Fold this sequence. Notes:
Number of helices: 3
Structural class: alpha+beta
CATH architecture: Roll
Order of helices and strands: EEEHEEHHE
Number of strands: 6
Largest sheet: 6 strands, antiparallel, barrel
CATH superfamily: Electron Transport, Fmn-binding Protein, Chain A
Radius of gyration: 13 Å
CATH topology: Pnp Oxidase, Chain A
Amino acid sequence: MWALARGRVRQAGGVRSKAIGCRRRCTCEKLYLLPVQGSGTQWYKNVLKNPSIRIEARGAEAKLQAVPITDAKAVSSVVEKFRDKYGASDVKKYYSKFDVAVLAQIP
């Protein structure tokens, strides 16, 4: 499932929408996000400062609280889920750094 996460990106004009790959696991209360360029992704840097995010998918919208995942084993688990869901070649093609992930959950 792909979702549209809206976050503040520093630029003239304010809020910019950013498509972020995500994997829903077990329940709707948890959503794992993998920043495309890992900890270097501007969206991830903004989440560290303001963990409140809004997700839109298939006409539904939710406000979630983002929790950074930095533990290497936990990040690896999220990456493997992405590879299982989207294929190893697509993950390799679109993602360049695998040092962080984000758990988005209902506050």
